[in-house]
## 1
Amino acid sequence: MSLYSFAINTSARVVPMHWQIRGVEALLKLKKHTIGERPVPTFVEAKVPDVESLALDEIDVSNPFLFRQNQWQAYFKRLRDEAPVHYQKNSPFGPFWSVTRYEDIVYVDKNHELFSAEPIIFLGDRPEGLALETFIAMDPPKHDVQRKAVQGVVAPQNLKQMEALIRQRAAEVLDSLPLDQPFDWVQKVSIELTGRMLATLLDFPYDKRHLLTYWSDLIGGMPETTGGEFGDKEEIFAAAKDMCRHFAALWYDKKARQDAGERPGFDLISLMQNSDDSKNLIERPLEFMGNLSLLIVGGNDTTRNSMTGGVLALHHNPDQFAKLKAEPALIPNMVSEIIRWQTPLAYMRRVATQDVELGGQTIKKGDKVLMWYVSGNRDERKIEKPDAFIIDRKGARNHLSFGFGIHRCMGNRLAEMQLRILWEELLKRFDTIEVVGEPERVQSNFVKGYSRMMVKLSAKAGGPLDAS
Amino acid sequence: MASITFIEHDGTEHAVSIEPGQSLMQLASDNLVPGIDADCGGECACGTCHVIVAPRWFDHTGSISADERQMLAMTPEAEPTSRLACQIKASASLDGMTVRLPEFQM
């Protein structure tokens, strides 16, 4: 633990967390005026060059406009074919390796002793003053203890209890959608449904659920970590303070109710309070906030963009939509295919703990390594017709989007369930789901997602929304 | 015919004949036993071929690597005789073994 973390965690016993953040912010301002800030890269959108016009060492897949301009496929295909373990030494985020073939990615993901997940899974380092600690970016044994403390919240047994509630909330959202006129699917469906889900998992005040998605967008969208758009430090610190205030209040409220004899709920904070390893987590603010951030980011961009991506994939493949309508039992398999096809989080970062030979290259101890799931999921060596969207694909579950090994996505079953319910409820109500125009994509090298997608629905004859 | 029996969570039994050298996960997949997902295809890296071995057979299933132990520790449904089916090699000496499937794979 750094001296800085030690000081924060020690003082947390007497000082509220949001005061601490105010203190850190003041210190950073002072530092800015005296010794200067750590430089933060700025990204101005320019046309992404044709990959064939570049020499191999000029290829920089950290460019946050690669996904926004939908140019990523050609870039990663070239790397897979010509430089499957590729070094870029001059990116705005510093030097890094890209691993782009399926088998090599599984190797890196599995060998957590060779490739450390610490201190963070984004390409860029954490912003000064916000060095949150989360178990996705911890190695064993600490990782194992912290993950265990919270994984019950998304365990299948718990999900079974929640399924009816999730279905009811999905139905409410779908029943309120306009028919026969374009609307933004991202805002009205994807964000709305994931926000409701997060509020349920955290038992967060339902009427303030938009805060969860807002915080998540900020955390995942900082320029220094992912090349994102949210560079306003004052806004970020204000949000961090607000988030601390809300979660500390939630923690103490739950604790007081439990101390008064109320039965603990199945929500995340109650689970933390009832595990010996995390019952005092509030006294370790960087971990407390870090793990909450992980859960809200992990449950936000991922499912949101798969909800949007599935609609887009079916729009481009009308034969698959016809197949789906004829055979709704394909939904679970299609959900895996959507998660592969979309790959909402493009990579995870590791750091080599020793020199490692991979793909004929030597990755040096201390080097950053990105496992590009988005590329492995399109690797012709492993997956037949990888760019095609095939809802009854054989082996659809063998995708990389959840990662493999000890950091494998904890919420995978929840994600699959949410998507399955969404499609079951959509098929009951709508005959056509038409994408109008091109979607707008997110600026990021990490989140492969959509900021806006206009969609037009028509009611299914004889369905619950049929007015005739 | 030497066989191993997979018992689904609801009690449905599937006896499959032993192909020596194959993993239990492959046997289950080849015989379409439901409830084994095997997302990673046998890499000991996803935990979705979790089975619970009948206690008296447990010592016959071979040693457990650190990797497997770690993946098993991640499922809340793990029991003392839990194994990953992809890490058990089928052989004639396992004739008559029964393994239960958990209610859910994680």
## 2
Amino acid sequence: MNPDPTNPQRTPYPPSAGGPWHQPAPPPPPFARPARVPRKPGAAATILLILGAVIVGGLCGGGPGAVAGYVTTQPDGPTAPPSMRPEFPDAARRYLPDLKVADLADDWLVKPNGYRCAPSDSPTRISEAKNRMSCEPTEEGLSAVDALIEYDGDTQLQYVGVTCGFKPGANYCKTLFANLGDAIFPRRPELAKQAQEWAGKNVDGDNITTTIGGVRLTIELSPHRMTVIPDA
Amino acid sequence: MTMANVQPPAPPLPSAGDAKRAWRRLRLIALAVAMVVLVAGGAGGYLLTRGVKKTSYRASCGTLRCIPSLPVSSVIDALKGRGFACAEKAGVDTWTCQLRIGDTHYESRIGEKDGLIYKFDNSVRTERSEVADAAKAFLVWFAAMPFSNDPVLAEEIDGWLIPRLSGGADTKVTIGGYFYSLTAASQQYLRLDVWVGTR
């Protein structure tokens, strides 16, 4: 009769007991459903729900967490550049070691050999030095010979070059170059001897180079010249 | 509202209330699990990418990549300490440092972004026919700069660079994500370009 005993609304009338008009019993409500008892969550539902929670929680947490970690982190890097090797270029080696302009101009070219030295007006430089001194012999017949000294200060020589415009084999050039080798080491006789010997031996070499005591000596033939610069 | 109240003893339907409670409990447990996983996942994700990023060799600087944590100023100061003349070209964020010793000219250009370095190139021009120790020291110092806190990689760079300086050929290599390009066709013009790359 009453499809749902738990619902009082579904029993508007008492059960028909044959009233005075013999009313027929009312039809069951069309929406009446079969009895449905809520069940406890089963194992599958439990697993699905927990799994869903793990996935949703993981995505919602892990995603932004990963992004935050990526965006806010900078890698560990060096905080200082590597240490430099001793050979690393150093401006302290820009000048010829332990050499003064006067060591060459006065003590070698002017006094013993009668050269005349004067500051050069020419802006041309072989090195980057501020000043240039040009020395020429006063003796007759030596117009093909000159010496150039480029320097910043008296103790800061960057370049020394001696040109000897005589043909190979000329004795004057041999003496000149050997003496230059000697003159660039006024306080180091061992090196002076070494440089003097090298220059005398290679006087007619073409583009021959050696390094002695941090100084680079080069002899070339066209023009016939010996140059002295700091070794890089 | 509750159906169970209609017939108080309700012996045929003893599980209705229990079931609801069980569902509610399950929902609560699921929520708690979700919260725990959320926090743990967030922390885990954060630590994971953080760890990955920490050990990478390239930092982000705007749209570019830079050498991590090495200030441009520390490099400029080191060069100035050796007597290099350094100047910053305004507008392009590039430093140029130069030094000439005898017949050899050293030049270094360093690209700056947010105080870090995103590229640099170094050149040695000389009249000499062989590679001088100073030139070697100069180029090796720059080449190892991104990895000065990683001796293994720094050594790898040295091993790549030093034999190629006198190799008479141009070469390229990628180390730790950095693009290295060496110009060494002539011993009288050596040049090393290093580019950290874009994101």
